[in-house]
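Let us practice reading a record.
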Amino acid sequence: MTRSGTSSSADRAGDSDALEDLARVGLIAYGVVHLLVAWLALQLAWGGGGGGGSADQSGAMATLASKPFGKGLLWVLAIGLVALALWQLAEVLRQRSRLRGSGDAKKKAAVKTAKAVAKTVVYLFLAVTAFRFATGGGQSSGQQQQSAVAGVFSWPAGRFLVGLAALVVIGVGIYHVHKGITKHFMEEIDTAQATAGQQQVIERLGLVGYPLKGVALALVGGLLGWAAITFDPAKASGLDGAMRTLLDAPFGKVLLTVVALGIAAFGVFCLFRARYPERT
């Protein structure tokens, strides 16, 4: 097969109606997970510890698993998230020919490729988490992260690698803040068919959701960095630990509530993305 043929096949795969429909399910799943995380964070802030559940993705999955028909919904979410990951992989394939170019086009293709790869990893991680909770083998994200960090600490230069990972997570958080402030999130959604009122709502959701999700991610990265500095994997407590750290700060309930509402706004933005997916 020629290179142009390969590129054409990738474009057809990425533009497949069936894959796009499944990706919509994945975007809905992604939005629902964020809405559940926001709800758990609000319970943590005002409900005396959130009922013992983790205010993170695993807590959201556990909440679904405990409900009637919850495990069936988790299977649907997992399949949708896998489709969403495949959608991003198709984007990587689409950018291959552009990476062989030069100048600004090559740089843009490299950035899009890096973003698509990162999103693929995130969606696959969430899909695996959903599968595990659907089959009764779910585990707290914080526990998984602590176990992973403990394992990395045993490697040569493991402490350095954990510190580097912390900087990456902090950088992703800062990127989300920048993306929200500059409104670059509007490049990920096609609002041509949306009403003027819907476009305004979508923009406001992104302006609130992206920066506050970025704050939460930066806190996760900060805890990971503290784990590297103290050489203590227990400090790498993930998103749930970040939420609890925020709660312990001065005016913690208010701060945690603001971040929770921001995460909820991001979740609703994802639902709009499912309604008006990005066209490439």
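A brief commentary: The radius of gyration is 19 Å.
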